[in-house]
Write a structure and sequence with these properties.
Number of helices: 10
Strand order of the largest sheet: 3-2-1-4-6-5-7
Order of helices and strands: EHEHEHEHEHEHHEHHH
Radius of gyration: 16 Å
Strand content: 15-25%
CATH superfamily: Spore Coat Polysaccharide Biosynthesis Protein SpsA, Chain A
Largest sheet: 7 strands, mixed
CATH architecture: Alpha-Beta Complex
Distance between the termini: 14 Å
Structural class: alpha/beta
CATH topology: Spore Coat Polysaccharide Biosynthesis Protein SpsA, Chain A
CATH class: Alpha Beta
Length: about 230
């Protein structure tokens, strides 16, 4: 099994180096493709300081949104499985990525999703963060590029969920203890962060109606359980 890791990034100069260095310590990853979506800060300069045979760096000339950044990475990758990792994670460790991949290697799941330390309480209660940016999926989930690129920049994860449900893949959640993703208000300030959050929610709701998002959450809950107590060999 080959696992290709795709990391979309936009204005993450303060965090991207630690994320990438952590991923480079993960032997389960066949390759790591980082796509800088035309950042206006020093993200690209930070990335250019990093060199490794498994690492590929790509920069968009125009800001195109997370979904297009991910698909730029997919086109440049070759693994049978795709692992997506958000570029702003704090406290990510190699064992988190190992645990995300292990259920697929062991044949106990087809798809895995992370639950971060600061995932919403409702997601923890229902044992799945159905919009998690950290997930491992068969490449087939992302085969229809046009389906994904036809919508707004956000909405990638919920569109993936529709394909996962249609294929009846087994989905399991994996705890990411200690890992947090900064709130947009922490990164951009309260006003700008709130506007960014509202834009993200609006774009997701433009992809699917609220009842369908609820169905996704319920569907994953029905079959899900935390999976951090499995053997890793």
């Amino acid at each position: 099994m080959k696992f290709s890791c795709i990391v979309p990034a936009f204005n993450e100069a303060a965090r991207i180096e630690n994320v990438v260095r952590t991923l480079l310590l993960c032997p389960d990853l066949h390759e790591i493709v980082v796509v800088d979506d035309c950042s206006t800060d020093a993200t690209w300069e930070v990335l250019n300081r990093l060199e490794h045979p498994k690492l590929r760096k790509i920069r968009h000339e125009k800001n195109s949104g997370k979904t297009r950044a991910v698909f730029t990475g997919i086109r440049e990758s070759s693994g049978e499985y795709v692992v997506t990792i958000d570029s702003d994670l704090l406290n990510l460790k190699p064992e988190h990525v190992r645990d995300l991949i292990a259920p697929i290697r062991l044949g106990t799941a087809d798809v895995t999703l992370s639950i971060r330390e600061n995932s919403l309480g409702i997601y923890k209660l229902l044992r799945n963060d159905f919009v998690s940016g950290e997930r491992a999926v068969p490449r087939a989930v992302l085969a229809e590029e046009g389906y994904y690129l036809s919508g707004p920049g956000f909405g990638l994860e919920v569109k993936m969920n529709e394909k996962i449900i249609a294929a009846k893949y087994r989905v399991k959640s994996v705890r990411f203890p200690g890992v947090i993703t900064p709130r947009k208000s922490d990164k951009y300030g309260f006003v700008a962060g709130t506007v960014a959050d509202m834009k993200m929610v609006g774009e997701i709701l433009s992809v699917l109606p609220a009842w369908r998002l609820g169905y996704q959450l319920w569907y994953f809950y029905r079959q899900n359980a935390y999976l951090n107590n499995f053997p890793t060999k």
